[in-house]
Design a protein that fits this description.
alpha/beta; 2 domains; three-stranded mixed β-sheet; Aspartate Aminotransferase, domain 2; Aspartate Aminotransferase, domain 1; seven-stranded mixed β-sheet; about 425 residues; binds pyridoxal-5'-phosphate; 13 strands
């Protein structure tokens, strides 16, 4: 049953006669025969696509041949607990729409109102011509919600991490990051040219050792995700704060998957543990998870954010968020501040699905949030499992190397507050059939 969707969006009517049907994904037709058997491929080291591509292409070739290529499924409806893809209804169990706000009429209306008043584009970068009063209002709303002096926003969460790390740090400094930090943090450190050390995931002894053993550095920044996006576990925030104080270092938390998810008021990992927000030097996050929009944010002191406005490349050299995206963020924050029952429902759903999967004998790893990995050692088994579940009407994303280390492939499930118990039971029945 498709819920939370405007029925008009569910009719698969082509917009014009010229529209070609989108090819089926699992068969690999998306690549116009590129993976058909018998195709010769050359990966010489002087070629544009060199030897590093061989493994990717081998894996994709096998997946396409077997009809189980698992990515880029074009949805024919809006995101929600039920979607349509390839002409079939599918229970969506891997979307970041944690609070079920995509498709909420108040959110849609805010976007439309944003366009009515300001049009569709921002017309430039934030520092130059792209700042609207709406951006400033959104930043004030978020600062109030998160409880920090100031907030600055960017056109994605990826760019927010890049902005703050590359804007503040360079080769004389070092970053000591959790080994499971998000890729945007890793890429940002490369761009900054900062010295990087990694500590074992959520292991505070390892963090202490890394801090004690590193190269000379002017400043040291510890970085952790609040909630880890591939494993669904939570950082030990109190310990991180304690260590940062003892070692005279700084602490940055990427709260992308925690804001709108953790704490009774959805404020994030600090609320969950009752730790004052200002104990953390830098907060970052995304507006494409619980907040159903696009964009990213950095929160911290006024001094930090005034500096970033004049030193962070994504603020200066990339277009500002569009008015409709900004209007959506404002409305989402209003809803998140007034409807705390959504957080409780989200947690209940996570407990129900995780418990059900564990009863069926699945390994859900470290999960303690609505992100629930179902672990497979073998990458191909994982891709096949995703294809079989899709065949049974359940859409889940397989996460394969290099997104996770070899041997730790998993289906990454995300429950939302919009899933009903019947939806989750439908998923558990499919997982039972898969197991059997
Ligand atoms: C922990 C974390 N940080 C940052 C990002 C990037 O956010 P965005 O999609 O807004 O660029 C993601 C995206 O999945 C994430 O999981």
């Amino acid at each position: 049953m498709i819920q939370n969707s405007d029925p008009s969006t569910l009719t698969a009517t082509p917009a014009t006669d010229l529209d070609e049907p989108i090819p089926t994904v699992g068969s690999g037709k998306l690549f116009n025969g590129f993976f058909d058997p018998g195709q010769e491929r050359n990966f010489r080291k002087d070629q544009l696509v060199d030897g590093r591509a061989r493994r990717v292409f081998d894996l994709m070739g096998r997946a396409c041949e077997a009809g189980v290529y698992p990515f880029q499924l074009p949805l024919e409806t809006r995101q929600g607990p039920w979607v349509r893809a390839e002409g079939r209804e599918l229970l969506m169990l891997s979307s970041y729409d944690y609070l079920g706000l995509i498709g909420d009429p108040r959110i849609d209306e805010a976007a439309i109102e944003g366009i009515r008043k300001y049009g569709t584009g921002s017309g430039g970068a934030r520092l130059l011509t792209g700042t609207l009063d709406l951006h400033k209002q959104m930043e004030r709303d978020l600062a109030n919600f998160k409880g920090t002096p100031e907030v600055l926003t960017f056109s994605s969460g990826y760019l927010a991490n890049l902005a703050v790390i590359a804007g503040l740090f360079s080769a004389q400094d070092r970053v000591v990051m959790d080994s499971l930090c998000h890729r945007s943090v890793v890429d940002a450190c490369k761009m900054a040219g900062v010295q990087v050390q990694r500590f074992k995931h959520n292991d505070m002894d390892s963090l202490r050792q890394e801090i004690a053993s590193g190269p000379p550095a002017n400043r040291t920044l510890i970085i952790s995700d609040g909630v880890f996006s591939m494993d669904g576990d939570i950082c030990p925030l109190a310990d991180l704060v304690q260590i940062k104080k003892e070692t005279n270092t700084f602490l940055m938390i990427d709260d992308s998957h925690a804001m709108g998810v953790l704490g009774k008021g959805g404020h994030g990992v600090d609320e969950l543990f009752g730790i004052p927000t200002n104990e953390i030097d830098i907060w970052t996050g995304s507006f494409a998870k619980a907040v159903p929009s696009n964009g990213g944010w950095v929160a911290g002191s006024q001094q930090l954010l005034i500096f970033l406005q004049h030193a962070a490349s994504p603020f200066i050299f990339s277009a500002a968020l569009s008015p409709s995206s900004v209007a959506v963020v404002r409305e989402a924050i209003r809803i998140m501040s007034t409807e705390p029952e959504r957080y409780a429902r989200l947690q209940e759903n996570a407990v129900f699905l995780r418990g059900g999967l564990q009863e069926l004998g699945y390994d859900t790893g470290l999960s303690e949030t609505p992100i629930i990995p179902v672990n497979f050692e073998n990458e191909e088994h994982c891709a096949f499992a995703a294809a079989m579940l899709r065949g049974m009407g359940v859409g889940v994303t397989p996460i394969l190397f290099p997104a996770v280390p070899l041997g730790s492939a998993r289906l990454r499930l995300c429950v939302t507050a919009a899933h009903t118990k019947d939806d989750l039971q439908f998923a558990l029945d499919a997982f039972k059939k898969l197991r059997d």
